[in-house]
């Protein structure tokens, strides 16, 4: 039983490794291979929204990997290859959207919100510092208040004595 | 004033919730990068007569549809009846038999009838030129051979009336105007 279980677990553990797409391309240089890996990771598979063409086994991803490889070997630049893809599949294929007018807020948004957050945080800190200083300015109870407190305490003490 | 400030994060959160919730039900249709560009050049064999080469020039002269299909694609089977219907109404449809077994494709046409004026055969490269993500896909091409729209998924009466008919009317008006000048 234990043997079956461990065999099963081993199978489950190894499965993802065998799912990964492994192509047997030959590259001329290690640098070319590195560019291939970067490109296939940065280009989104047009059919399967959540995956890069490097991470997908969809037929279209296979085709596009082949295109990337052929273009690399033919000496085209990364920019040429990315332009080729955008030309046909639109900006959609870019995992790293270009910084254009249309995508301005996409790029600026995080910094903008971080800035707003920082300002809010500073204001809050400033305020709480002011609050801490205030009791020092206001020197406790006035003479009149002190007398009244004493009276209340006295009254209470005498009341207790009666019980 | 302070109250409002305190409620602001909650209001923002709710607003984002509404925005994202709406995003869930949005159409995930990606507009084709090829819209308003000429149909890419090709020279590919005809399915019915493999010795004959077909080119993009056959798309010029009248408004037409180019339908990307394959026998491996179940949705293509679903839409086939509607393509026949469109053909009966006089719509010109060209077919691109995409990554298919040509014998099976010929059998499909023989058995289910042929809605296409011409069919050209592509093993994949033309699909990439066209930015095809899957099948079926249907391009609307004007009389100058320029792509005007692409629909992904099956063709049906709703899609035809909502997406294609208004655009075809617009193209026809354009043509009358440019012809008159």
Automatic annotation (TrEMBL), chain A:
Residues 9-153 form the CcmH/CycL/Ccl2/NrfF N-terminal domain. InterPro entries: C-type_cytochrome_biogenesis (IPR051263), CcmH/CycL/Ccl2/NrfF_N (IPR005616), CcmH/CycL/NrfF/Ccl2_sf (IPR038297). The keyword Nucleotidyltransferase does not apply. Residues 1-20 form the signal peptide. CDD domains: CcmH_N. The keyword Signal applies. The chain crosses the membrane at residues 104-125. Keywords: Cytochrome c-type biogenesis, Heme, Iron, Membrane, Metal-binding, Signal, Transmembrane, Transmembrane helix. Belongs to the CcmH/CycL/Ccl2/NrfF family. Possible subunit of a heme lyase. This is Cytochrome c-type biogenesis protein.
Automatic annotation (TrEMBL), chain B:
Its main location: membrane. CDD domains: TlpA_like_DsbE. Gene3D superfamilies: Glutaredoxin. Residues 33-173 form the Thioredoxin domain. Keywords: Cytochrome c-type biogenesis, Disulfide bond, Redox-active center. It comes from the Bacteria. It is a single-pass membrane protein. It is found in: Cell inner membrane. NCBIfam families: dsbE. PANTHER family: THIOL:DISULFIDE INTERCHANGE PROTEIN DSBE. Belongs to the thioredoxin family. DsbE subfamily. This is DsbE family thiol:disulfide interchange protein. It comes from Parendozoicomonas callyspongiae.
């Amino acid at each position: 039983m234990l043997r079956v279980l461990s065999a099963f677990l081993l199978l489950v553990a190894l499965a993802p490794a065998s799912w990964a797409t492994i192509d047997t391309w030959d590259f001329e240089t290690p640098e070319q291979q590195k560019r291939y890996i970067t490109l296939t990771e940065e280009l989104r598979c047009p059919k399967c929204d959540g995956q890069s063409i490097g991470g997908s086994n969809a037929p279209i991803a296979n085709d596009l990997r082949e295109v990337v490889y052929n273009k690399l070997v033919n000496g085209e630049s990364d920019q040429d290859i990315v332009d080729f893809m955008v030309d046909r599949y639109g900006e959609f294929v870019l995992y790293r959207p270009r910084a254009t007018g249309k995508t301005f807020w996409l790029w600026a948004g995080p910094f903008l919100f971080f800035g707003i957050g920082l300002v809010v945080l500073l204001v809050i800190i400033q305020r709480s510092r002011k609050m801490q200083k205030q009791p020092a300015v206001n020197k406790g109870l006035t003479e009149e208040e002190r007398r009244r407190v004493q009276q209340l305490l006295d009254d209470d003490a005498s009341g207790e004595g009666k019980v | 004033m302070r109250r409002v400030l305190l409620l602001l994060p909650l209001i923002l959160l709710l607003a984002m919730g509404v925005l994202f919730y709406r995003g869930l039900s949005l159409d995930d249709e990606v507009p084709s990068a090829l819209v308003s560009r000429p149909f890419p050049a090709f020279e590919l064999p005809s399915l019915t007569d493999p010795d004959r080469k077909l080119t993009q020039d056959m798309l010029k002269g009248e408004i037409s549809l180019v339908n990307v299909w394959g026998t491996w694609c179940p949705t293509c089977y679903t839409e086939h009846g509607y393509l026949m219907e469109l053909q009966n109404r006089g719509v010109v449809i060209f077919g691109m038999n995409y990554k298919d077994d040509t014998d099976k494709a010929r059998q499909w046409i023989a058995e289910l009838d042929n809605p296409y004026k011409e069919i050209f055969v592509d093993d994949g490269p033309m699909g990439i030129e066209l930015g095809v993500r899957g099948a079926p896909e249907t391009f609307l091409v004007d009389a100058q051979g320029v792509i005007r729209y692409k629909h992904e998924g099956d063709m049906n009466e709703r899609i035809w009336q909502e997406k294609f008919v208004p655009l075809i009317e617009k193209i026809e008006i354009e043509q009358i105007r440019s012809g008159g000048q």
